[in-house]
């Protein structure tokens, strides 16, 4: 986006603010479902500022425009916002609410702040309202200024919904609905409203393509004791699927009718809502006489705990994903060694790794935009190469590749760093420290119910010991052919260690420590792991991690002198497993590459 376009758009927004007597407007990175990845219709923050990261909050006043985002995006934001007049406001994490503190400090009594309630989380809305009220500042949530200034705003997506069928969906829709109703009853509720798209997709065994990378569709759901209503766009449900849903007691209604249905709820209704997963607009629509109970969506817990059948499908998917990566890395090394080749770019990495996955059974799409960063670009945590801006991979250094796939039998997410040409002692030291962090947490045993954020320090300890740290969480939950970022567990110091973050059997989580040296290189090594039982003692049940990801780690980048014997054993055992599991799925150059890269150290 041109700098002049950003300036014109912000000027148009400020003129609209003046017409409506609004002193500040807040545009969060959100939609009515509080999604991470957004349909084009709700990418207002990106449209206004030019910042394309997936997390950020935009605020404009008559004389100021700024974007609040966390350390993963600082380098990217500095580049994209440079010269635009939009200030980068650095925050410690994506969960930070420092923009609320800024508003409270900079707004004067009697002024008005506006934010669209349809895309404002209920929990955030309460904090914002309290902070502004304490300053005598008015909060308006009944207006969307983007509709007034964004003349070419995209419409809502129209892609059809499809069924996630057996054998991959091993639990029926009826069984999931029954379990949800049992959880509602335990909480004293006879109705439950759900807006988060992955919860809805999980509950109804449905998938879609309304959001990039996540196989979900725009919908709301209202579940009562004897009825389930799915509010979804017209013509998005094919006739055969419509009949299947009706046979399971699922009724269809228009997407725009969800708020109206909430308004009709009366005194006989006790409605369960999750304040972290519903917007202020939807909460305000609930009938005044209905009683409301607030708790985490039961489906949020249920979908995080993969069944034994789902875990089996994920293991099979990891073999296919790992085989695709063997083909890709064999091609990459051959290409890098060819002196007659055309220049190899970061953009080409994305194309080739996606093509390798697409040849595998069950592949649907990438699970997020591939990050391929060579040398200095690898230090940009959420870097994305484009045709307009990318590096050529030549000479010497480190290439970081963070990628993943959506398969019918699971979701993958893996980061590997590989040597290009010669690597230095400094490269090896950083790489080995990161791997030590991965091994430390991968090998941990912990009591069942441990709050997931408390595990973060285990992975950081070897890196901290060297006086180094990294600016993102160590791990996030991962869905089952669903969102690549899934809760409630999160191995991150920025996540409060609330009871709902407890580690339970069946959860899939990433482990991805890193070291980033701006302007030089970035290193992140990431595997997905499954919580499985370890042992039961007089002190209770203990869990451990089963490593799911199957792909060699580049031992050419290791400093063997700082590895303990048990760490060497872990690497050799992991590589033996990778070789045994992937060998049946690869041939030719991919098989030869697998054999070479899994040799013992």
From TrEMBL:
Coiled coil: none annotated. It holds the Pfam family Creatinase_N. InterPro entries: Creatin/AminoP/Spt16_N (IPR029149), Creatinase/aminopeptidase-like (IPR036005), Creatinase_N (IPR000587), Pept_M24 (IPR000994), Pept_M24B (IPR033740), Peptidase_M24_C (IPR032416), X-Pro_aminopeptidase_P (IPR050422). Residues 313-530 form the Peptidase M24 domain. One of its GO terms (molecular function) is aminopeptidase activity. Residues 9-133 form the Creatinase N-terminal domain. It comes from the Bacteria. Keywords: Aminopeptidase, Hydrolase, Metal-binding, Protease. Residues 541-601 form the Peptidase M24 C-terminal domain. Gene3D superfamilies: Creatinase/methionine aminopeptidase superfamily (3.90.230.10), Creatinase/prolidase N-terminal domain (3.40.350.10). Belongs to the peptidase M24B family. This is Aminopeptidase P family protein. It comes from Massilia agrisoli. The lineage of its organism: Bacteria, Pseudomonadati, Pseudomonadota, Betaproteobacteria, Burkholderiales.
């Amino acid at each position: 986006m041109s700098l002049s376009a950003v300036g014109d758009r912000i000027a148009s927004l400020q003129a609209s603010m003046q017409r409506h007597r609004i002193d500040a407007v807040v545009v969060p990175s959100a939609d009515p479902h509080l999604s991470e990845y957004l349909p084009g219709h709700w990418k207002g923050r990106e449209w206004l500022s030019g910042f394309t990261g997936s997390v950020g909050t935009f605020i404009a006043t008559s004389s100021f425009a700024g974007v609040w985002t966390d350390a993963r995006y600082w380098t990217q934001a500095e580049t994209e916002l440079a010269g635009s007049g939009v200030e980068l406001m650095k925050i410690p994490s994506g969960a930070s609410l420092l923009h609320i503190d800024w508003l409270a400090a900079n707004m004067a009594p009697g002024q008005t702040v506006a934010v669209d309630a349809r895309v404002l989380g209920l929990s955030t809305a309460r904090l914002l309202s309290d902070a502004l009220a304490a300053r005598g500042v008015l909060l308006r949530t009944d207006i969307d200024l983007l509709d007034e200034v964004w003349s070419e705003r995209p419409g809502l997506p129209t892609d059809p919904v499809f069924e996630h069928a057996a054998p991959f969906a091993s639990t029926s829709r009826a069984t999931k609905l029954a379990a949800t109703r049992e959880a509602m009853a335990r909480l004293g509720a006879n109705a439950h409203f759900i807006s988060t798209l992955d919860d809805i997709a999980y509950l109804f065994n449905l998938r879609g393509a309304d959001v990039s990378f996540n196989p979900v569709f725009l919908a709301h759901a209202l579940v009562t004791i004897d009825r389930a209503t799915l509010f979804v766009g017209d013509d998005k449900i094919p006739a055969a699927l419509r009949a299947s849903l009706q046979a399971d007691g699922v009724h269809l209604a228009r997407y725009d009718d969800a708020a109206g249905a909430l308004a009709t709820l009366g005194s006989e209704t006790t409605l369960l809502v999750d304040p972290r997963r519903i917007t202020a607009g939807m909460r305000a629509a609930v009938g005044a006489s209905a009683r409301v109970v607030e708790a985490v969506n039961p489906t949020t817990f249920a979908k995080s705990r993969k069944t034994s059948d789902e875990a089996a499908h994920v293991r099979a998917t990891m073999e296919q994903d790992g085989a695709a990566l063997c083909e890709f890395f064999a091609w990459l090394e051959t290409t890098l060694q060819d002196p007659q080749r055309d220049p190899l770019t970061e953009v080409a990495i994305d194309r080739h790794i996606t093509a390798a996955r697409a040849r595998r059974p069950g592949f649907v799409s990438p699970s997020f935009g591939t990050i391929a960063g060579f040398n200095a670009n690898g230090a940009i945590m959420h870097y994305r190469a484009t045709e307009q801006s990318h590096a050529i991979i030549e000479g010497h250094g480190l290439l970081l590749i963070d990628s993943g796939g959506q398969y019918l039998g699971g979701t993958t997410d893996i980061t590997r760093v590989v040597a290009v040409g010669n690597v230095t002692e400094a490269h090896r030291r950083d790489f080995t420290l990161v791997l030590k962090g991965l091994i430390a947490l991968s090998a941990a045993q912990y009591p069942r119910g441990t709050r997931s954020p408390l595990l973060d320090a285990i992975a950081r300890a070897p890196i901290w010991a060297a006086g180094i740290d990294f600016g993102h969480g160590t791990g996030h939950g991962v869905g089952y052919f669903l969102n690549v970022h899934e809760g409630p567990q999160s191995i991150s110091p920025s996540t409060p260690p609330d009871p709902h973050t407890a580690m339970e059997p069946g959860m899939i989580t990433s482990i991805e420590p890193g070291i980033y040296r701006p302007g030089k290189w970035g290193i992140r090594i990431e595997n997905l792991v499954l919580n499985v039982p370890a042992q039961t003692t007089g002190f209770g049940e203990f869990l451990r991690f089963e490593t799911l990801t199957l792909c060699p780690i580049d031992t050419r980048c290791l400093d063997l002198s700082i590895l303990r014997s048990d760490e060497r054993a872990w690497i050799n055992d992991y590589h033996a497993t990778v070789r045994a599991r992937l060998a049946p799925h690869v041939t030719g150059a991919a098989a030869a590459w697998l054999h070479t890269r899994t040799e013992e150290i």
